[in-house]
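> forwarded from #structure-qc
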């Protein structure tokens, strides 16, 4: 039987080395390989942390803080593009830069909520029209609970509401009288506390942006008396005063 030297034999060429004989020459390269072998996970985790911090920093530096928030709640699922368009229109009527960041920026936040009557009507319609989906009552109740909480905290003072949600808040004295904000109540107002939004000159001038809202959507503004316990009352009151300025700008739009 023929004996083969290490690294020689039928499975090895004459000029090939056995894996155990392979060495990386040149001290710097060898050290780099060894460092990576023993510390690669530390390096990967460190790079990941740096990446996360960099993204967070960029978002903080480039994000725009809202000057005012407007709440829509009702059966209309506005969608992202609709929300963005309404936000741009609302930003255009903002009377001043409330937070002093150099940008006039208003944001509309939408909650898709159906009344019991609307839920029943859609369920009946879905029986004969496959394009109509019945309302998920669990999600609907969750959104309604969110609405009640947002109303109590006072973060959203300017509201665009379906009539039944308006009545839900108005019944507990949750809105400010239009006359107290504007000096006199507008002609043809829905009530002492609300106007039909699409009757306003502002909504008519921006009909394309607000086309998604139902025609009976009501515009109203919260009062501070019925707001629940808030963490920072001074800040909440300041934002409410700013919302009143915004509300006046919408109502006095020409």
């Amino acid at each position: 039987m023929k004996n083969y030297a290490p690294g020689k034999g039928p499975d090895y060429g004459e000029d090939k080395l056995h894996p155990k004989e392979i060495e990386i020459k040149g001290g710097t390269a060898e050290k780099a390989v060894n460092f990576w072998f023993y510390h690669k996970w530390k390096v990967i985790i460190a790079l990941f942390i740096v990446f996360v911090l960099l993204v967070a920093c960029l978002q903080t530096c480039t994000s725009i803080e809202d000057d005012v928030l407007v709440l829509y709640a009702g059966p209309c699922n506005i969608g992202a593009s609709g929300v963005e368009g309404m936000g741009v229109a609302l930003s255009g009527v903002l009377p001043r830069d409330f937070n002093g960041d150099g940008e006039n920026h208003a944001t509309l936040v939408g909650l898709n909520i159906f009344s019991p009557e609307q839920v029943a009507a859609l369920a009946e319609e879905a029986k004969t029209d496959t394009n109509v989906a019945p309302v998920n009552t669990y999600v609907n109740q969750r959104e309604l609970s969110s609405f009640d909480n947002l109303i109590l905290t006072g973060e959203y003072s300017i509201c665009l509401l379906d009539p039944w949600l308006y009545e839900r808040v108005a019944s507990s004295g949750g809105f400010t009288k239009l006359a107290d904000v504007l000096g006199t109540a507008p002609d043809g107002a829905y009530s002492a506390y609300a106007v039909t939004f699409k009757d306003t000159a502002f909504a008519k001038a921006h009909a394309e942006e607000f086309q998604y809202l139902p025609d009976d959507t009501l515009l109203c503004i919260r009062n501070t008396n019925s707001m629940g316990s808030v963490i920072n009352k001074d800040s909440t009151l300041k934002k409410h005063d700013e919302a009143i300025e915004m509300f006046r700008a919408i109502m006095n739009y020409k």
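QC bot note: Helices lie at 27-62, 80-93, 116-126, 137-153, 163-170, 178-182, 201-205, 233-251. Residues 27-62 form the longest helix (36 residues).
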